[in-house]
Amino acid sequence: MENRNGSLPDAYSTSTDIYFRMNPMRERPSARLLITTPKRRVLLFRFVHRTGVLAGKVYWATPGGGVKHGETFADAAIRELREETGIRVARVSAPVGRREVPLLLADGERVLAVEQYFVVNTDTESVSRHGWTAEEMEVMADHQWWSREELSITTETIYPEGLIEMLDEAGVFGA
């Protein structure tokens, strides 16, 4: 199914998993954060890839990142929250969502992202970049606190797909 240079053909659709069942990828566990305020707004980062295999890709996504060896998903969520926002908490909610999706990393590796989503309530909309890595500084171009209405009308690419439904089911946007 791969072409001569080892990449998947342009016609390949990620909606089928036949290729991935026949050619298993490394699983990359990650903790994703649904950070919300009393105003019922959720934090998303804007990713702008200017170089490498993801050059030209622009999208908004929840904060979060990979689970390190020996860490639980919840431990990773707390660490990623601190590193990416400066917000410190002792614990996070139980996971409110999970998804497994093929993902192309910035270095070109294709992985199966195994993501768990955690709600974190905060009283601040202040975000610190102090704990960001060089790679994060390069691709995380902006942040925004989004309302349900803003998410529902935007034409921007938002990840994860189905974010509004996940937030609704978690009770973030109310009943």
What does the secondary structure layout of this molecule look like, with pairings?
Blueprint: H1 18-22, E1 26-36, E2 42-48, E3 58-61, E4 64-66, H2 73-85, E5 97-104, E6 110-121, H3 134-139, E7 140-146, H4 148-153, E8 158-159, H5 163-169
Parallel strand pairs: 1-6, 3-8
Antiparallel strand pairs: 1-4, 2-3, 2-7, 5-6
Q: How is this structure best described in words?
A:
The termini are far apart. This protein has one domain: Nucleoside Triphosphate Pyrophosphohydrolase (Alpha-Beta Complex). A four-stranded mixed β-sheet has the order 4-1-6-5. The protein has about 180 residues and is of the alpha/beta class. It has five helices and eight strands. Helix content is about 20%, strand content about 30%.
